[in-house]
Design brief:
The chain has four helices and ten strands, in the order E-H-E-E-H-H-E-E-E-E-H-E-E-E. The chain is of the alpha/beta class and about 150 residues long. It has a three-stranded parallel beta sheet with strand order 1-2-8, with helices on one face. Strands 3-7-4 form a three-stranded antiparallel beta sheet. The protein has a two-stranded antiparallel ribbon with strand order 5-6. Strand 9 and strand 10 form a beta hairpin. The N and C termini lie close together (about 10 Å). It binds flavin-adenine dinucleotide.
């Protein structure tokens, strides 16, 4: 089992959440193994990240390149989509009401994920195994994961 790995942190999943978690733990000084496939460029989703999350991306050094490709979230509208006879009125909040230019940014996953993936690839503290986790178990002191590549 020469390919069996021991790492302080194992992150399973290579979408925005997993990539950000891996970067965050690595920046905090932990040795990280990230498990999950590379993006295939077919992700048609977007992810809305609020200002506190953007501060995390800024700290991780990826925000500047994302900003030009993101849509600012300036207005938030809460709509009662029930079919009740008496519905709550629609409420609109503007970021300017709380002295902010925007609540956050909406980012295409096809922009966000490659930028995060580049940061992960460049980070010496992260080993990225581009393989699915097939099974895992936790005991008191360890997490054990078996990857699809057999490691
Ligand atoms: C049509 C659509 C529109 C959306 N629009 C918005 C929007 O406007 N605003 C918004 O905020 N959100 C939106 N979302 C949601 C947003 O895109 C997702 O919440 C976001 O991508 C979730 O990121 P994630 O990292 O948690 O998961 P994902 O992006 O789903 O990533 C999961 C990753 O884990 C990997 N994985 C899965 N199983 C394993 C395993 N066993 N081992 C290792 N890796 C594994 C997958 O391959 C994938 O890379 C939308 C979603 C959809 C479907």
């Amino acid at each position: 089992m020469d390919h069996q790995k021991t790492a302080r942190i194992l992150v399973a999943g290579s979408g925005p959440a997993g990539l950000i978690a891996a970067l965050g733990f690595a920046e905090a000084g932990f040795a990280v193994t990230l498990a999950g496939p590379a993006a295939n460029g077919q992700d048609g989703r977007t992810t809305a990240l609020m200002n506190p999350a953007l501060k995390v991306l800024e700290r991780l050094g990826v925000l500047a390149e994302l900003k030009p490709k993101a849509a600012p979230l300036k207005v938030m509208r809460i709509v009662d989509a029930t079919r009740r006879l008496v519905r709550s009125p629609t409420v609109t909040f503007r970021a300017t009401e709380i002295g902010e230019e925007q609540f956050g940014l909406n980012l295409p996953n096809n922009v966000l994920v490659p930028a995060l993936a580049r940061a992960v690839a460049a980070h010496a503290g992260i080993e990225w195994r581009k393989s699915m986790v097939e099974s895992w178990r936790l005991d008191a002191a360890h997490a054990h994961a078996v990857l699809a590549d057999g490691s």
